[in-house]
Amino acid sequence: YAPLLRRQIEIIRPRVIGTLGRFAMEFLFDFLQMAQKGQKISQLHGQRLEASTSYGTVTVVPLYHPAVALYTASQRDTLAADFQVLRQAAHEAG
């Protein structure tokens, strides 16, 4: 599905993208050629990262996959806080 996802991003031109889990984060970092490529999601989750695209700047917010909250109850608050960062980024992007 990678070619389809790449094409969708090019068509939609999002200003904010939230990645759900490590695999999605790594895919997007590779696709957008981001400097954070290869870093761990545990270091980057909930941060607002900027990337350059053919249509301008996009904010990327890496998030743990929501399933983490099912398996590790202590991560629920972390996940909720990270989603608030995503919400604020989307709000500011208009």
How are the secondary structure elements laid out?
Blueprint: H1 2-12, E1 16-20, H2 22-31, H3 41-44, E2 49-53, E3 56-63, H4 67-71, H5 76-93
Parallel strand pairs: 1-3
Antiparallel strand pairs: 2-3
Gross morphology: globular
- Give the neighbour order of strands across the main sheet: 1-3-2
According to DSSP, the number of beta strands is 3
Gyration radius (Cα, Å) is 13 Å
Report strand %: 15-25%
Report the end-to-end length measured between terminal Cα atoms: 28 Å
Written as H for each helix and E for each strand, in order along the chain, the element string is HEHHEEHH
Number of helices: 5
Class by alpha and beta content = alpha+beta
Average pLDDT level:
95
Low-confidence parts: none
- Sheet with most strands: 3 strands, mixed
Give the proportion of residues in helices: 40-55%
